[in-house]
Amino acid sequence: MPHILMTDPAHFAVDYVINPWMQPAAWHGDPAGNAAAARAAWAALAGALREAGARLEVLEGVPGLPDMVFPANAAVVLDGRALLARFALPQRQPEEARFRAAFLAMRERGLLDEVLELEAGLVQEGAGDCLWDAARGHFWAGHGPRSEARAAGCIAEAFGREAVALELVSPRFYHLDVCFCPLPGGEVLYHPAAFSPAALRAIRERVPAPLRIEADAEAAARFCLNAVPVGRRLVMARPPARLAAILAERGYRVTGLDLAPFILAGGAAACMTLPLDRRSVTGAARVPELAEG
């Protein structure tokens, strides 16, 4: 039963602009209605994850910190270790102390073994820019808009696992988890326009063509790549029919949700979740076999 961290949406709002998707004017055109819609969307996501078999750990939100509802950016977690994030922008930096306290409390409860810090001054925005690929036994580490390239080395050292650096080149895809999603069957769902040529080469060198699923601009704009895999279930913002059909052909069951209130802030299902119990046991043996074939 996967264990996933979420933050309640009681204090969520869209009050500022720190990415191209954020629309404070749309939010404040009907703040009460949008807040109610956000609570309903959050509850639908939580319900879908529980239905898929996940157990949820829910943090309380904090007034004045609306983006705490996106705990994916709080840390990188693997093998009982949590490497705390450091935010690039002042709007989110006050979240650091709150999340640090929450992770230390989880350590005291036995939910985590260690809580680690980045080296001084290094900026890295958690699992938003660092995705574990269980099929290959390594991390994919995004850098560019929010996280530094050298963070990949710090992550590799902290967890003893390779971290493959991927440069993001579009402000619209400011975190790796909005344009890239490793899937449980070894496939990688990604939006090529988000990446530098060197990053695309790195993806293509490590992921054989039969396992690469290229998502178009429509799917990316709907935040469908910001998905949460739970076994063969994929929980995501409502996908276009074409993407839903591709994933169904691969044997995935897609649960599409209306996450529009959170997309107004530039986030969706993966941004709103952080797996706490991932382990570095991999099924990587089948991937080289595909590559050789």
What count of structural domains?
1
Instruction: Give me the oligomer status.
Output: single chain
The CATH class = Alpha Beta
Give me the CATH architecture, please.
5-stranded Propeller
Number of continuous helical runs: 9
CATH domain topology? L-arginine/glycine Amidinotransferase, Chain A
Mean pLDDT: 95
Helix content: 25-40%
Order of SSEs, N→C?
EHHEEEHEEEHEEEHEHEEHEHEH
Largest sheet: 3 strands, mixed
Give the number of DSSP strands: 15
Approximately what portion of the residues adopt beta-strand conformation? 15-25%
What is the H level of CATH, i.e. the homologous superfamily?
A: L-arginine/glycine Amidinotransferase, Chain A
Distance between the termini: 34 Å
Q: How large is the radius of gyration?
A: 18 Å
Q: What structural class do helix, strand and pairing data support?
A: alpha/beta
Gross morphology is globular
Uncertain runs: 282-293
Biggest sheet: strand arrangement:
2-1-15
Write a structural description.
- This protein has a single domain, classed as 5-stranded Propeller (L-arginine/glycine Amidinotransferase, Chain A), CATH 3.75.10.10.
- Helices cover 29% and strands 20% of the residues.
- By secondary structure, it is α/β, with parallel strands linked by helices.
- The protein is built from 9 helices and 15 strands.
- The longest helix has 22 residues.
